[in-house]
Design goal:
The protein is an alpha/beta fold and 331 residues long. 42% of the residues lie in helices and 19% in strands.
């Protein structure tokens, strides 16, 4: 068999620079020096006899040949990663040296630290990094290869190269000031009090904000767009101070423990609706590692979030719950 003149390191360097736009960013992603990446690119272009990058453009752009090659490099490196993961077995989980995790901010306080602690114990030779981002950024980072694992809201369209494991059913709830007397308010009644008790809404740039707004439209409810926030902390602190009411999710509410004494969490008075939180992993991550992560996340979510919330708000039982893992396939 004729030996290929190409090096995998050259192809990885080319892919990284093409995806990140500059030699500097591509090198940072790979954890190597700029000179090393430049050398690999030069070797690849020399071996192929064509220019792959237009070095005279800022930002740097792929040539036609570079765009053609990138499609095949993406496919080849993905298949190589899948092949490696296929030969790794459960007892070789310690071979994973680095795991990059991204999660939504709802896991910052309790779930994230406990989850990472469990993963460190299960994979003591692995280096971990964790960051908090909105759902759309997490999915973009996964597809760009900048993180390996993501905990995010489920989005209803296919994400190539990712495995989605539904994790948590997270119902939306009504949150009002504890000083608001009476039984369960209705949305129409709240609509009539907007001057003295306005609706504090999430920004529509966020997935959670768009989900809530879509449900209100389905119910025919309209509220003045007076106050809109990206920060759950800001919204719930204002509700606790008696300056408004809001709709949020049980998971989001759970992490705001410092305000719970000043808040009333109530079932959503209209037709119930939920969001789904999923565990996303890159397809080239070994199955044994995905199993360790899934178990760590589920245990942390159950112990630190679901159980305490249901103890305090029994009406959440069967609504706020883990989603059973899909049965393993055989064949």
């Amino acid at each position: 068999m004729e030996r290929s003149p190409l090096s995998i390191k050259w192809l990885e360097a080319f892919q990284s620079v093409a995806r990140h736009g500059t030699v500097r960013d591509g090198a940072a992603h790979l954890g190597v020096s700029m000179s090393t990446v430049s050398h690999h690119l030069s070797c690849l272009e020399d071996a192929l006899g064509v220019a792959l990058l237009d070095h005279g453009r800022r930002p740097m752009r792929l040539t036609v040949a570079g765009e053609t090659l990138l499609r095949r490099v993406d496919e080849a490196l993905w298949l190589l990663g899948m092949g490696i993961s296929d030969i790794w077995s459960d007892d070789l989980a310690s071979l994973v040296r680095r795991l990059r995790v991204a999660h939504i901010e709802d896991f910052d306080t309790d779930v994230g630290p406990e989850m990472l602690h469990a993963m460190v114990e299960a994979m003591p030779r692995c280096d971990f990094s964790a960051l908090s981002r909105p759902t759309h950024e997490i999915l973009d980072l996964l597809q760009a290869g900048q993180v390996d694992v993501g905990l995010a809201s489920s989005m209803e369209h296919e994400r190539l190269g990712l495995i989605e494991e539904p994790l948590l059913r997270d119902p939306f709830i009504l949150v009002v000031p504890a000083s608001l007397a009476g039984g369960l308010p209705d949305l129409q009644g709240l609509a009539l009090t907007t001057d003295e008790l306005p609706f504090l809404r999430y920004s529509k740039t966020q997935l959670i904000g768009r989900q809530i707004e879509a449900q209100l439209r389905r119910l025919g409810m309209r509220y003045p767009e007076r106050m809109e926030f990206e920060s759950t902390h800001m919204i719930l602190s204002m509700v606790a101070a008696g300056r408004g009411w809001t709709i949020t999710s049980a998971l989001t509410f759970a992490r705001a423990q410092r305000y719970h004494a000043e808040l009333r969490a109530l079932p959503f008075p209209g037709k119930a609706f939920t969001r789904r939180i999923s565990l996303y992993c890159r397809e080239d991550l070994p199955e044994s590692i995905r199993g360790v992560i899934d178990s760590s996340v589920r245990n942390a979510v159950l112990r630190r979030t679901i159980d305490p919330m249901i103890t305090r708000y029994p009406w959440l039982a069967h609504q706020f719950a883990l989603i059973a893992p899909a049965p393993a396939t055989t064949g």
